[in-house]
Amino acid sequence: MARNFDPNVLLSKPLMANLATVDADGAPRNAPVWFQWEDGALWMLGTKDGASVRRLTRDPRCAVEIVDYDNAAGILLHLGFRGAAEIRKMDAALFRRLLGKYLGPDEAQWNTWFVETIAAIDDPGGRLIRLVPDSVFTNNVSYFRTGPDLAWPLAPEA
């Protein structure tokens, strides 16, 4: 009963994604991440010493899940990616676009403490995780309140 939808519906929103990786002992790990979709790739933040970067350097296989859930509106959209990620050195322009998606387009309005302490755009240890997905799937189960005839969007993607 699930319906497909255009992935760009979710990729353009400032939603949280969940990055799933595998630890050295085979245990699954999950991390919430901000993301930017550009040029057929999902870009996520990392640091050279960060746990996700270490795990992906050892084993690049990963999954990313993005969900848009609005209980009151009856919307439940799920987007999933599978593939092998690569670690890239920080690209400050891309990083700024990613931050702008979540913090707004006016950098002067960004929280200075957050940018200097957490985001650290100019940190030489900054990394970007790049995933060009091997597989993409969408699952629109927004009918949980209304039934499939009223699922959002009304017409499924072909």
TrEMBL record:
<dbReference type="GO" id="GO:0005829">
    <property type="term" value="C:cytosol"/>
</dbReference>
<dbReference type="InterPro" id="IPR052019">
    <property type="entry name" value="F420H2_bilvrd_red/Heme_oxyg"/>
</dbReference>
<feature type="domain" description="Pyridoxamine 5'-phosphate oxidase N-terminal">
    <location>
        <begin position="10"/>
        <end position="134"/>
    </location>
</feature>
<keyword id="KW-0560">Oxidoreductase</keyword>
<protein>
    <submittedName>
        <fullName>General stress protein 26</fullName>
    </submittedName>
</protein>
<dbReference type="Pfam" id="PF01243">
    <property type="entry name" value="PNPOx_N"/>
</dbReference>
<dbReference type="GO" id="GO:0016627">
    <property type="term" value="F:oxidoreductase activity, acting on the CH-CH group of donors"/>
</dbReference>
<dbReference type="GO" id="GO:0070967">
    <property type="term" value="F:coenzyme F420 binding"/>
</dbReference>
<dbReference type="InterPro" id="IPR011576">
    <property type="entry name" value="Pyridox_Oxase_N"/>
</dbReference>
<dbReference type="InterPro" id="IPR012349">
    <property type="entry name" value="Split_barrel_FMN-bd"/>
</dbReference>
